[in-house]
Specification:
Strand content: 5-15%
Helix content: 40-55%
Number of strands: 11
CATH superfamily of the largest domain: Periplasmic binding protein-like II
Mean pLDDT: 88
Shape: globular
Strand order of the largest sheet: 1-3-2-4-11-5
Structural class: alpha/beta
Oligomer: single chain
Amino acid sequence: MKKANLKYLSLLLAATLVTAVSGCATQAPTANSGAGASPDATTAASPANPQEQTNVRVQLSFLTQSIDAPLIVAIEKGYFAEEGLNVSYERGFGNADTISKLGSGNFDMAFSDMYNALEFNQKNPNSKVIAVAITQNAAPFSIVTLKDSGINSPQDLAGKQIGAPAGDGPRKLFPLFAQEVGIDPNSVEWVTMDPKLRESFLLQGQVPAVSGFATSVLPSLFKAGRSPDDINVFYYNENGLDFYGNAILTRSAFAEENPEAVRGFIRAYIRGLQDVLKDPTAGLDTVIAADQSKLMDRTAEKARMEIALERLFITPEVEQNGLGGVDTARLEKSLQQTAEGFGLQGTPQISDVFTDEFLPPAADRQLPPASERKPLS
């Protein structure tokens, strides 16, 4: 009798252990699970059947910001999951760094610009990256000054100092900007600084002007107490350099091996972008709620979103042609200007850096009607 009881207890214990192990094996991972997870990394909610999902690792161009709302909204609303994708993302450290990490295989998709990608591809022909959809129809490249510096036009930059990080895109393209506005680029003295010090140097008067993305520089100045009336912004796309902004990039190898994943990613992202354009306040709130650091400043992020809505997301070209695509003549010209500004070899072709083969049909990429777009509040 005792032997029978012991046998029964042993079987019961074994069954309990199997159940416990099975439960642990099916438990969904947390957003930052795994060794070395970034504190700014986020993942989509675990799907009902994760075996059927394709994992897609995404890197942003910089810190998570309000202009990343389309991605985060698409994750939160399950648009990527509907496409069979389990999307996770991490912060970036600047466009050039993001492209380098994408090309090396650290990520599957990324948000960065085509122009740094063109330079990367020339230097790394066996690790080619390609833009598959444009997320910002205009680049926020700019020179920013405070009005009390006395620099009130691009021509006033002659003979002045301009601050920027060494790899800053607008800095690299400044010779072309100078050519367009009629000043000698060699008359400008560049002061190199860490990106996080750029606005501080400007505010402290250590430099009278800085180059950078308006979406980065202006919110920082507003957060520091400056108003739009205190600031001059010289946009490159208003001075002869009509560049596109950031795009969805992927490795050519990933696109060849996972074409449906790329198509699904773009479809889901565009749905998220359309939602943000309909209700930007809800998009902004979604980003703030998803911020794990809880350090986002809503006023600064609202200003960033306002710039994006007015200059990057909604343009006459997008109104006419829809989201995600390019005007070939415009892109060809900007690529030629990039080759000149970056000192690249040969005449770049659109196919070197962009393809529209993964875009949804035009009917699915239209801007929401103006009557359906709520104001940002």
